[in-house]
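Notes taken during the Thursday session

The instructor put the following on the board and asked us to keep it in front of us for the whole hour. The protein is LysR family transcriptional regulator. We were told not to look anything up and to reason only from what is written here. First, the residues (53 in total):
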Amino acid sequence: MNIDFIAVAHRDHPLAALDGPLEDSALAPWPLVRIADQGGDSRAARRPDLLHH
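Then, after some discussion, the predicted structure tokens were revealed:
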């Protein structure tokens, strides 16, 4: 299975200052992956603690 990801970071986050494609080594210090879909719980988008059941 091949899955494409879109990296998203706040404009003040260190990753936002990097130019070009992000290498794995640049992403390694921040290993959070959040899966979202249109049918998801909008509360979870605002409250990360709701993602951990």
